[in-house]
Write a structure and sequence with these properties.
With 498 residues, this protein is α+β, with helices and mostly antiparallel strands. The chain folds into 4 domains: 92 residues, Nuclear Transport Factor 2, Chain: A, CATH 3.10.450; 112 residues; 134 residues, Nuclear Transport Factor 2, Chain: A (Roll), CATH 3.10.450; 106 residues, Roll (SH3 type barrels), CATH 2.30.30.140. It contains 12 helices and 24 strands. Strands 6, 7, 8, 9, 10 and 11 form a 6-stranded antiparallel sheet that branches. Strands 1, 2, 3, 4 and 5 form a 5-stranded antiparallel sheet that branches. Strand 8 and strand 9 form a beta hairpin.
Length: 498
């Protein structure tokens, strides 16, 4: 007889599945061991047996869908029960199958009291901005939500429920068009163990489950730009409420960026909610607002506003706890001042620009330390009682400098300030002549020099190291310094400043 190799191969392939699959009774018994309190174990009529590669070995695996009902044991909801929907996994062992585990797919609550649908809809309609997060994409506020008649209200936990709703809205789809859409959404509403509702969001991060286009509209770019979006309308409403709370703030005519930074610092140190709000409205530049009437912040203006409000008023750790009334300048330019915190472990940067001859706060980098570092700073005192030589110089106007005026020139390589003569400004550099050796150079930063008795300075020792000294008196370019407890005559050209 001729041997049929194909038929032989077929019998070999199916022989791996030609043994008894686990029975419903066996599955229930195995699942019961994993869920001893289960009151119902519902096993599907048939499962699926496949070959799967596990740990580089082909295994015969059997899977079958199972729903497990377990009492929720919640005193507030005695009839509640958990439904775990998943599948059992068995692996071939000898002539049968061995139970591996039950893999839950999802879970839901049954036996919960029916929620008040009207309360849910009222809550959703009052919190549309939580659901439609990009308010600026909508021409107007979406219409009121309605429950989908065939939709189910599913309890996902004791404090959240999932439901389906419909609404209609007009969405901005381009710079010249809008679309009126009827949409169906799945929403999760959160509460407090079945109590009042507190939060709502769409499921899985998806905003829309289905959309039906009702109408398309065309505009010119100019026409659509003139229409306030839903987000613009909300911003204006919030801004009007905020402006009603704002108190008038008199902003001085600052002569220097240092004076502007000191003014901002003083208000942040005081930490008064209304004063900080007023500061942000009165000192923000025009481009921080959407319209000439300066009511509604742009996105960037609002980010700066919220950043400073959080640092000064709303945060767990506050600016006034970590910075001092007398600012400790890390670095300054003609348009910015970096202010150290109490222990110089961090700093804030305030940036300014002139608008109609008035200084405006154009930027802010806020570093308010959190956790242990923030707690430590709060406990530290402010020890600085006077301005240093460099800081005093930052208060003076560079524009009033004349050739041969005395200045301090910043040398980038060693981060020291050197006494020098001012020779002019060109191509973004200051031309200077050093006191030390009369050599000429170009630097990017200078400040007018005013050295007073009591100032701290540095002198260079023979080994090249720096030693801090106190200036006792000043006479032209000659000074007397306290060097190791003794008054010592010294030349200003040999001093360095930080």
């Amino acid at each position: 007889m001729k041997f049929n190799s194909a038929l032989f191969l077929f019998f070999v392939l199916i022989s791996g599945f030609a043994f008894a699959q686990p029975s419903v009774t066996q599955i229930k018994a195995d699942v019961k061991k994993q869920f001893p309190k289960a009151t119902l174990i519902d096993v599907s009529a048939a499962g699926k047996t496949t070959k799967e590669l596990e740990s580089s070995v082909w295994q015969t695996i059997h899977r079958q869908n199972v729903n497990v009902t377990v009492p929720a044991n919640n005193a507030k909801f005695p009839n509640a029960k958990w439904i775990f929907r998943g599948a059992v996994k068995y692996q071939k062992a000898g002539s049968g199958f061995s139970f591996v585990k039950f893999n839950p797919g999802d879970e839901l609550l049954e036996g919960m009291p029916a929620p008040n649908k009207e309360e849910i809809l009222t809550f959703l309609n009052a919190n549309k901005s939580e659901i439609f997060t990009n308010k600026y994409s909508y021409l107007s506020e979406p219409q009121g939500f309605e429950l989908v008649p065939t939709g189910k209200l599913v309890w996902l936990d004791f404090d959240r429920i999932q439901l389906e709703v419909t609404t209609t809205y007009e969405k901005i789809t381009s710079t010249i068009s809008t679309e009126k859409i009827k949409a169906k959404l799945k929403i999760i509403v959160y509460g407090k163990d079945g109590g009042s509702w507190t939060k709502a969001q769409t499921t899985g991060g998806k905003e829309l489950d289905s959309e039906v286009l009702l109408e398309k509209k065309k505009y010119s770019v100019e026409e659509l730009e003139k229409i306030n979006s839903w987000g613009d309308q909300v911003d204006l409403k919030e801004a009007m409420v905020a402006w009603a709370r704002i108190k008038p703030l008199t902003v001085p005519a600052f002569k220097t960026v240092f004076e502007a930074a000191s003014f901002v610092n003083d208000i942040l140190i005081e930490g008064d909610d209304m004063k900080v709000r007023s500061l942000m409205y009165y000192m923000s530049p025009s481009d921080a607002f959407k319209a000439p009437e300066r009511k509604v912040f742009t996105r960037y203006g609002k980010e700066r506003y919220e950043k400073i409000m959080n640092a000064a008023v709303n945060g767990d750790y506050l600016y006034k706890e970590q910075y001092c009334s007398l600012i400790d300048v890390k670095e300054s330019t003609q348009s910015s001042v970096d202010v150290y915190n109490k222990d110089r472990s961090s700093y804030c940067r305030f940036e300014f620009g002139l608008e109609n001859n008035a200084w405006k706060l154009t930027g802010a980098t806020m570093y308010v330390l959190q956790g242990e570092a923030g707690t430590k700073l709060k406990s530290l005192p402010c020890t600085k009682t006077s301005l240093g030589t460099v800081e005093r110089g930052t208060q003076q106007e560079l524009s009033k400098l004349k050739v041969k005026d005395h200045v301090l020139a910043y040398y980038e390589s060693d981060k020291l300030w050197y006494p020098a003569f001012y020779l002019g400004y060109e191509n973004y550099y200051y031309n200077i002549q050093y006191f030390m050796d009369n050599s000429k150079g170009k630097v990017r930063k200078i400040v007018p020099m005013e050295i007073l008795a009591g100032d701290k300075a540095f002198v260079k020792l023979q080994d090249g190291s720096l030693k801090e000294v106190t200036i006792k008196s000043v006479n032209g370019t000659d000074v007397v310094i306290d060097f190791n407890g003794q008054n010592t005559n010294y030349k200003m050209s040999g001093l360095f400043f930080k």
